[in-house]
Every structure is written in C-alpha cells, then in structure tokens.
Amino acid sequence: MNGPDARVALPGPGRARLWQQRVTPGSARSCTSLLSREERLRAAAMTDAARARFTVARGVLRGVLGSGLGLRPDRVPLRVTCTRCGASDHGPVRLELPGVGLALSLAHSDELAAVTVAHGERGVGVDVEAGTSIGDLGTLARRVFAPADRDRWQTLPAARARPTVLAAWACGEAYAKATGLGLGTALAGVGARLDGVGRLVVAGPRELDGWSVRTVPARLSGYAAAVATRHEVRLSGGDFEHTGTECANGGAAALSGQATAHGG
Ligand SMILES: [Zn+2]
Predict the structure, then answer these.
(1) What residues have a C-beta under 5 A from ligand 1, the ion?
(2) How far is ligand 1, taken at its centre, from the CA of residue 158, in Å?
(3) What distance in angstroms lies between residue 254's CA and the mean position of ligand 1's atoms?
(4) CA distance 10 to 139
(5) Mind listing the pLDDT tens digit for each residue in 194-253?
(6) How far apart are CA 241 and CA 7, in angstroms?
(7) Domains detected in the chain
(8) Which GO terms of the molecular function aspect are on file (predicted)?
(9) Which of 174, 173, 167 is nearest to 193 (CA)?
(10) How far is the CA of 80 from the centre of ligand 1 (A)?
(11) Positions in the chain whose pLDDT score sits under 50
C-alpha cells in the first residue's frame, strides 16, 4: 500500500495534471487489479490490443484517483455516459464523488495511454495519436488544414509533415473531448495552420471561448499528444507509481516548453 507520503497529489484550483503510460503486456497485466469488476468484464470481451489499451488507461486513472483520494482504485466511483446517446459503454468518464470536483479525460493510441485530471468541473480533454495508426497523411491533412495551409504543409520535409499533421489532429480531438463538440466542429474551431517557418499554430482562448489547446511532448517517439483546458489552468506532468505493481511507473512527461501550439 502507498503510505501517506507516496500519495499522488491531485491538482488543486487552477491546475491540471497529465500522466502518460506505455501500454505493454506487462503494464496491462499489472493494471488489471486496479479496474472495477464491470471494467474487467468489459475488457474480457475485447481483442488483446484493445484490452491492453483500455486496461492501462483505466488502471492509471483509477490508480491516480485512488491514491490521491485515499480510496481503493477499483472502488473509485467512475461513471461513463455518452453525451449523445446516453449509453454507458462509451463517452466521457466522470468521477461521481460528492464534494470532489475533478474533471477527467483519457486517451490511448497503439502503445501509449494518457490521463488528465483537472480541478473543478469545467472539463478537460487529452488526446494521443500514434504515427503508425494513421492511414493516408494527405487525407488527414485535408481534414485539419484549410487549403492554403495544406499547400504549405505539403512543402514540409517528410520528417516534419507527419508529426505536424498528427499534432493538429490531436489538438482537435483534445478540444472535442473537453467541450463535447463533434470532431469536425472541433477541428474547424481549432483552425490548425502553419506559420511562416512551418510551425503548427492553433486558435487561442479568445477564439475558443476561453479554452486553451496545446500540444505536449508525448512520452513515446512517433506520437503526438495534446491537452485542452480552460485558459487559466496550469498543466503539469504527474508522477505516479503504484507500489506493488509495475503499473504507471514514472508516467510523467516533461512538460517544459509545452505551449508550442498556441496563438491567436
Ligand atoms: Zn453514444
């Protein structure tokens, strides 16, 4: 068990924290014990790869919240409700604990899972995207960039073209998750474009009704990650070690110089 000193510090007012964890058979195995019974049943019906991603993302979330709140991870009262159809097998995850106002967001792609927790109930969104999981880059670019920026994007060297379009996509997904907007609307709102030297720029809080969307360093190379928070919220990387298992060991990303995608 974690002693009081080993407790995860959950974000206080005006703060959000991000945890990233590599998805491996080992991390999935050790995260299994953190899941609720219902989640374990759900996971059992998935393919191996999907089960590993689900287990690590939910496991890290439950581990972080359980440690920070002093609860058994499998007993942390999480609820999932789709904001569109009301189903409970997909959609945003909420903490249902009276008197505790925390906003949560989860993401996973291929071998990387991420969890963001923000103080308050105004929402937060995280997204990670694996370079290996995208199909045709040009198709993706057509969805994230307006024509002029797409032309500029096409002039980027191949080594920059892929991470740039992935990052733009991740920004749209993170904003969609934070706000509940549909992905198309969110991508249009984020309005990804390229500046004069080909760096990605996205809309700022003035255009996004007080939301701030930023790219953050992904813990694995070849991945993009983005987080959307209320503008005034400060984001930091979290350290989480679930003593006794290998789940989420050292899951923090360095977040210095995170705001590469930020402009107006
Ligand atoms: Zn639904």
Answers:
(1) 82, 84-85, 87
(2) 37
(3) 34
(4) 39
(5) 999 999 999 999 999 999 999 999 999 999 999 999 999 999 886 544 433 334 433 333
(6) 9
(7) 4-237 (3.90.470.20)
(8) holo-[acyl-carrier-protein] synthase activity; magnesium ion binding
(9) 167
(10) 10
(11) 1-4, 240-264
